[in-house]
Amino acid sequence: MTMQKMEYIWFNGELVEWDKATIHVLAHVVHYGTSWFEGIRAYETARGTAIFRLTDHIRRLSDSAKIYRTALPYSVEQLVAATKATVRANKLRAGYIRPVVYRGYGEIGVNPLKNPVEVAIATIEWGKYLGAEAMEQGVDVCVSSWNRFAPNTLPAASKAGGNYLNSQLIKMEALANGYSEGIALDANGQISEGSGENLFVIRDGVVYTPPISASILGGITRDTVLHLLSDMGIEVRQQALPREMLYLADELFFTGTAAEVTPIRSVDKVSVGAGRRGPISAEVQAAFFALVQGEGEDTRGWLEYV
Description:
Number of strands: 17
Oligomer: single chain
């Protein structure tokens, strides 16, 4: 989706004009992928614009950088306030928020520690990541030939920019072969996740999802859905899942800040269930959108109003 320019970006402690939020071509991040980021959604509600689980996202941003021995120059509370200020300055009623931390200009070697830590927060208008029609009809996906990285090679728990080179390969391969998205297996050949989404598998009324140890990012939408399923009294099992579960599932759906809750209707041209959104997927989807749009009861304080 092509980005539409907005008025301001929060850049190293102040709001600057969109076109002035720039970096040097020799910044460390350009050459070595030393960045950490978040994707956050703001929703329009009856009470005004609400950012969903903003504090949780910013905390994960800090955690992602910490794994790489990088301390943020701002506290979680300061970045939460800066995010809200950016949304207000751009008059964003609903859309997508991208905070990013990166190593800037200083030294050219692999060692990042002498390069400055810089922070930016941008907002953009963004609709349904996999298409509006996908929310009801579902999407067609494939199992990728590209696996997720093995444990002790790259930390999957860090939402690092460099990790998404792997995601790009998965996504481009899927699109080249006529699919909307790809599903990666982990280093053991078990189900991991999509290029940028967590995965849920439903069989005989039980919901399964790969564990954190399957080289997945611990998604905040994933965590939200786990709580919603618990509230509904639906059994959930976090366990290793073989590839063939994708073909035997009654329902499948992706979760993610961008994808929200998106049903899957086929995998490798094998129909999932009836080939359309199933009843549990529909129930989860309805509960999720009621929550984020301020229509359901927010018992956990996940809506942070601007």
